[in-house]
Amino acid sequence: MPERAQFSILNRIAALSEAMERVDQFAARQDVPEVARRALMLALEESLANIISHGYTDQNDHDIHIAVETGEQEVCLEVTD
Fold it and tell me: What confidence tens digit (pLDDT) does each residue in 1-57 have?
């Protein structure tokens, strides 16, 4: 049965660890295999670091939306800024 978690963080490096922890905990609860969890976490970290570092031309706060969903044999990560 597909499960989905979604939340938003601000475009601040300090928020990166919160996002990583929330996605990792979700994946663990869904019994995502360790190798897939590591790949998921790497993709999330790279995506967020790039968005936070290069995605905005101002110093204002911006929301970054994160969704992660599991299916029978898949994990889908969506990062929207």
Answer: 689 999 999 999 999 999 999 999 999 999 999 999 999 999 999 999 999 999 999
Distance CA 37, CA 41 (A): 6
Buried b (16+ CB within 10 A) or exposed e, 8-42: ebebeeeebeebbebbbebbeebebeeeebeebbe
Give yes or no for a contact between 69 and 75, defined as CB atoms under 8 angstroms apart.
yes
- Cα angle 44-47-51, degrees, rounded to a multiple of 5: 135
User: d(Cα 68, Cα 4) in Å, to the nearest integer?
Assistant: 6
Structure tokens at 41: 């976490």
pTM of the prediction?
A: 0.92
> 52 — alpha (psi -120 to 50), left (phi > 0) or beta?
alpha
